[in-house]
Amino acid sequence: MLEDTQHNRTAEDFSVVLRMISGHFVAQIVATFAELGFAEHLAAGPQTSDALAERGRTDPAATYRLLRAGVMLGLVSHTDGVFAATRLLHTLRPGTPNSLGHLARAWTAPGHWLPWGRLPEVVRTGSSQADAALGGSIFEYFATNSEEGALFTRAVSELSTPVINEAVPVLELGATKTVADIGGANGAFVLSLLAANPHLHGSVLELPHAVPDARAEAHRRGLTDRFDVQVGDFFESVPAADLYLLKFILHDWSDEENVRILRNCRESLNPGGRLVIVEIVLGETSDPGIGALMDMNMQVMLPGRERSLAEFDALLAAAGFRRTGLTRLQVPYAMIEAELA
Predict the structure, then answer these.
(1) pLDDT, tens only, 118-132
(2) pLDDT per position as a tens digit, 201-250
(3) Which of 165, 166, 175, 178 lies closest to 205 in space, CA to CA?
(4) Assuming Cys at both sites, which of 107, 133, 253, 300 could form a disulfide with 114, CB separation 3.0 to 4.6 Å?
(5) DSSP letters spanning 126-170
(6) Based on C-alpha coordinates, what's the Rg of the chain?
(7) Angstrom distance (rounded) from CA 280 to CA 312
């Protein structure tokens, strides 16, 4: 009996680790489901693999094998010769709440995939391997690979949407009149605040390449009269405002670079103003959650990192701020509020 138990445990451990090792298979399968639009194609109802292959102009036999793998992953089900969408598949459908379709494609594209292949060297050296794998930083790579850069931008926008939707209703604005979204890409965060608060005026600080997207998004939402785009570099300076938004910014950079960004905010912050940071907040080492995986992505791709609450407090203190609030958002994200110390 004891030998049988040990054998079963060994077999179970083997299966668990085998699933881990095949994780890159899984990632590429999910990304291909997104790339081929299966979530959209199956939204109207079940279809045969041949019908899906014809619609997507893919090889019928390869399409069937991909769909069968999707059954194993829970993306689709199979009954009476047809494949049907599951709830998991709907998360790959663009434009829906909590969509991850663009992220699935972005994280399996060369810009992320190639640096991750150098993870052992990352751990040996403690340094990002993006330059070695891509010939430059990930941002430089995106500048010369614009389609992949645009894909990543859409992925981050999708990832941001549910977090913004949770943050906006719970953010107390008080006497705040002006809000600046620092490094805010298309300005989704500040524009959502403007839509919910008609008295606010907002801006986004970004590099020149992001200006058209930000202006287009403001026009789409009908908020151009209360919104403008500031072209600049947050390492140099930031525009004056009552409230600064820093969403998914600090995790890209080292502690020293973060302190520089935060000090620039301190120097330009209007009297009585404050800042809001939206980032992953790591749990205890014994139970870090998915943030630990996201932190490894930062280790591979950039000089930054995900941080614990204590580490954010230390950054704030070094720049002359103190934390005044913490609101947990969709796991693993949180909103940290701070004012001048």
Answers:
(1) 999 999 999 999 999
(2) 999 999 887 888 899 999 999 999 999 999 999 999 999 999 999 999 99
(3) 178
(4) 133
(5) SS--HHHHHSS-HHHHHHHSHHHHHHHHHHHHHHHHHHHHHHHHH
(6) 23
(7) 10
